[in-house]
Amino acid sequence: MHLLRGALRNYAWGSRTALAELCGRPVPSVHPEAEMWFGAHPADPARLLIGDDAVSLLDAVAADPVRELGSDVAPRFGNRLPFLLKLLAAEEPLSLQAHPSAIQARDGFARENRARVPIDAPTRNYRDDSPKPELVVALDRFEALAGFRDPHATIALFAALEVPALAKYSALLAGQPDSSGLRALFTTWITLPERALATLLPEVLDGCVAYLSASHGRGQFGKEVRTAIELADTYPGDAGVLCSLLLNRITLQPGEGLYLDAGNLHAYLRGVAVEIMANSDNVLRGGLTPKHVDVPELLRVLDFEPVEVPILHPGGAGGARRYPTPAAEFALSRIDLDATNPTADVTVDGPNILLCTKGSVQLRSGDTVLELRRGAAAWVSAADAHVSVTTSEGNAQMFCASVGRAG
Ligand SMILES: [Zn+2]
């Protein structure tokens, strides 16, 4: 067991305060800080702090995969750590995106290899052959769009906006209020010729503004409509703004989670969260980004089935409570400690990354004792003894990332 120093990622959509504050560094930071990666991703591995050395976790796992990952996990995932744990702070919306299934990722990766698209080309969709399920858990209020809304509710939203130009799209959806209708409408909007978009989008946005003022911001679709206006501010003229009106608008309260399986169209809007995902870079973008957008490929992987995306709470009582997800690559549990429940145990049957998000905790594994402040993490290898966690003072919260069960 060692302290693990995360890799800080500066993206323009990040925050100059949230991660610095969480990790106890001066505020505001020089650059917007978007993510802190705790994992063994080749692009930016975290570092094990061993004595005066900072050893790449990627190198440590490669040097002795069976010791670090365990004899079960190492062969299951090709001697690689299968998950990446992140702290994420979004001040501005991230792109509209979806991730491929296992089969789509394998096919897409092979196809782009055959076409000789360089692995680091900005036009490359599939940088590896893995699916990328992800789970995001809010640390403060977290805002997102995820999954297609029930078409009947979307028809009601269009009606509320009172925009004549929306009538034909509303009719399209009313004729087929299911995944086929959503596919047809989304495909029409995301591929709308520039001139048609330049007429439709301002009319819809005018409708949004009128709706907000007529309902004094308290209408049934207030959040959805405000989101479209905000997205249009950041990405003017982007078809993704229209498409945002088709998606579930979700607010997570602290501790609540959202699981995004293959094909789920989503966009993170704002907030601070813990995120865990399969260790993959496979993202298909549909807009709201200056990065590469490949609409045909996105359409190929999207799941248009309307869903109410469930908000997840960790299951079980006391100790490490786990968020229920089907992912094979990862599992995420949360440990809450206070004066009445000051200790908990972490069972080690594979690699674990422990991340303190509130207060501070003391970790004990065999003879090793570590203090974990808020924002700090530790690596527990499969060879380490079970870990007992104690709050150093008052309330504390820790997340525990591990490998999911074999399917
Ligand atoms: Zn995503």
TrEMBL record:
Any GO CC annotation of this UniProt entry: cytosol
Keyword annotations of the record: Isomerase, Metal-binding, Zinc
GO terms under biological process: carbohydrate metabolic process; GDP-mannose biosynthetic process
Annotated Phosphomannose isomerase type I catalytic domain residues: 4-149
Catalytic reaction list: D-mannose 6-phosphate = D-fructose 6-phosphate
EC number: 5.3.1.8
Residues involved in Zn(2+) binding: Q97, H99, E134, H266
Listed GO MF terms: mannose-6-phosphate isomerase activity; zinc ion binding
Cofactor binding, per record: Binds 1 zinc ion per subunit.
The organism's place on the tree of life at top rank: Bacteria
Active site annotation, chain numbering: R285
Family according to the record: Belongs to the mannose-6-phosphate isomerase type 1 family.
Entries under NCBIfam families matching the protein: manA (TIGR00218)
Protein name: mannose-6-phosphate isomerase
Species of provenance: Antrihabitans stalagmiti
Lineage of origin: Bacteria, Bacillati, Actinomycetota, Actinomycetes, Mycobacteriales
Protein's gene: manA
